[in-house]
Amino acid sequence: MTNVEKKLGSVANYVDERTGAAAWMKKNLTKVFPDHWSFMLGEVCLYSFVILLLSGTFLTFWFDPSQREVTYEGSYAPLQGLKMSAAYASTLHISFEVRGGLLMRQIHHWAAIIFMAAIVGHLLRVFFTGAFRKPREFNWILGVGLLTLGIVEGFLGYSLPDDLLSGTGIRIAEAIIQALPVVGSYLAFFAFDGAFPGEAFIPRIFTVHVLLLPGAFLALITIHLMLVWYQKHTQFPGPGRTEKNVVGYPLMPTYMAKAGGFFFIVFGVIAFLSAVASINPIWLYGPYTPGQISAGSQPDWYMGWLDGLVRMAPPIETHAFGHTISWNILIPGLIVPGILFTGMALYPFIESWFTGDKREHHLLDRPRNAPNRTALGVMSLTFMMVSLINGGNDIIATHFDLTINQIMWGTRFGIFILPPIAFVITKRLCLSLQRADRDLVLHGTETGRLLRLPHGEFVEVHAPISPEKAWTLTSHEQLPALELTETDARGVRRPGAIKNKLRARMSKAHAVSVPKVSADDLKQIEHH
Amino acid sequence: MSNEIEAIKDPGLPAHVHREADTDPKAEKRAERQVAILFGISAVGTLLLIFSYVFIPQDLFIFVPVMGDQNAHQLGLGLGMAISLFFIGMGAIHWAKTLMPDTEVVAHRHEFRSPDNEREDFVKTVKERAGTVGMGRRSLIKKSLGAALGLSALSPLLLLRDLGPLPGKELEKTSWKTGTRLVTDPGDRPILASDLEVGAVAQVLPAVAEGSHRALSDIGKDAVLLIRLRPGDFQLTPEKLAMTHDGIIAFSKICSHMGCAVALYEQQTKHLLCPCHQSTFDVTRGAKVIFGPAARPLPQLDITVDAEGYLVARSAFSEPVGPSFWERNSQ
């Protein structure tokens, strides 16, 4: 035994005698994690969150969350002598006087943007592969919660510097609160300690941004990861992979080194972006005042879809009995996002309701093998993309030489027309891919070798695919649609007939597929 | 279904393929060196960071092709940090991929559902424990506890009451009053009608006593935009036309949609555009909404000139400015 081993041994002994951790540690250090590039999206979320905590803590050492009016006397000449809030002045101080301050600000902002992008990417991976199915519905809901928190946290974060752009964003948020029927103006006055902007919101959102929400994040992420750990990661179908096992690399050492190394890579890439790509140059915007604005005001990308929806809303307000209801704010700002996010959170339950499938699933679906779900996902994405495009309509207009009106009308119609088209195209594409898989299993791959037959015909030689590949392409199950009749055995209409009809229709749509290769098919091929 | 399962059998995990470094000691040594080099590059990155921090002045700009003028201090720090972090990661992953065990391991899963007897025992335990408390029998306790818990939830709500004042009529008021002078923003200079040429635009605020402080909350309601057109350009009702002065028309600058500053004026078309959500208002027709999500025209301020010829408000705004709210009477 070497000296180091002896020392480690005695430390381990000390800890184990007090916690009994050895058995638990032994089991978990050899825990198996399946490998796939798309599983790294969730890792990027986690790592960028850690980077956000680190860089954010750095920024709090100099940031002064106060709307107290000060006169700027720092080193950035164009703003010298201007009156501004202490929050804005201290952000300038971090950017120009604190060494590495600007780098940290940019790391914090880039990390936030990548954090949100990774969350969305991770969500799409989980959705399109069906990883949300039983027993992982809780984790899906936690994920939707984290996405929502992320949007709020990001918005509050870029609002803190109190520059002209961010103040405009807060103004819009205030208008949404104010638009709530009955309680709106009360809530707005409570949130802002009086009329907008007041002098209270920067200190208040600072507390929410650095304490309340990060705390909630930590709690939710911990539960999210504990569930991943306990339920074991899902895996893609393939040779030797079943619903009953998990195939991959053990935590120690391979997975630990890969995941730990990946943290440094994510951090390195974010640092590189922050070194070379300027983000949120607040000194160019100037301090916030409600009477001014700059053209091309844009939120960060993850708010863009919301802004786009608000922009495309028709100008509808109800004026009656001395009251005003702003549908042009409530529908795009609260009702539509509310429906979207609720629907997303409930999707695992809706799907298992109409498939009638209550079994555990640990093998992922290849997106093509669940055409209806994939089409639904692409449809939602299309909706978001159309909204996002309209959120940047002013920028797009100047860059592509279009008018705002053309883009606005295009997206006003597009938001209704394009998602269903995307659904149909995606579903057909999935079925075509299934057909291609079927051909591949039955006829093998094209070799590119041409053969001339004695009677002159040219044929291409096909080579059979490997048994591993054939298994991967055919191991998925194809569940038949639920058979739900409107009437019971005696011909009496069942209660909830509409619900049943809907369920049957959804189930039928979900079960559409190209039959995969069966033993009969293979036998027939042999006869050829 | 069973037919399909039998069609193609699971061939099982493919055999493990050895890497070069697993069999060739030379390759192993080479991989080891590569990992060490990657970690070495990381150390160089940290040195670059230290060098930039200590020796490069914060105000030094250098020209970098493609990127243009860059702050050398910031660039050095950032690149140093990026290199030092990125190559630690590369080293670790290269190490894992070439030298650490790469045999895939199979672990088993177990169904999460507890065995039936455990579940029954659980239900029994819960029932027994609940029985000892007598929750079912003691309805007085149950009801009073429920009431007490419900009531106690009121206290945080109550304690948050002082977050802000009640709105009252605050949202409906601005600082504009009869006779308030219009002054330039910035500059605080009163304006003669002749200061504005046809086609000109000016942002104005109500005059305040010398040296007194103007709160942002006031600017958020008081900001007004002056635009001068040819009097013949207007297509207004007689009442609205009477609110203009010699071709000068004044609108609240706070958007009637979500309160952004309506700052973009297009001289040719005489349209005002809000940069937030592109609501477009036609100045000649009293800021009528001609495009976008805003549902109401911008409120118009009634203006005239005082004895000295300076522009003043003839009266306060006749309706609330800014975005809508429940109590707003918009009829």
Layout of helices and strands, plus pairs?
The complex is a heterodimer of chains A (528) and B (331).
Chain A: H1 3-19, H2 21-29, E1 32-33, H3 40-60, E2 69-71, E3 83-85, H4 86-96, H5 101-128, H6 137-159, H7 164-179, H8 184-192, H9 201-231, E4 245-250, H10 251-276, H11 282-285, H12 301-312, E5 317-320, E6 323-326, H13 327-355, H14 371-391, H15 393-400, H16 404-443, E7 445-452, E8 458-463, H17 467-474, H18 497-511, H19 519-527
Antiparallel strand pairs in A: 1-4, 2-3, 5-6, 7-8
Chain B: H1 2-7, H2 20-23, H3 25-55, E1 61-64, E2 68-71, H4 72-98, E3 105-108, H5 116-133, H6 139-152, H7 154-159, E4 182-184, E5 201-206, H8 216-222, E6 224-228, H9 238-242, E7 248-252, E8 264-266, E9 271-273, E10 280-282, E11 288-291, E12 300-301, E13 303-305, E14 311-313
Antiparallel strand pairs in B: 1-2, 4-5, 5-6, 6-7, 7-12, 8-9, 9-10, 10-11, 13-14
Helix pairs in contact in B: 3-4
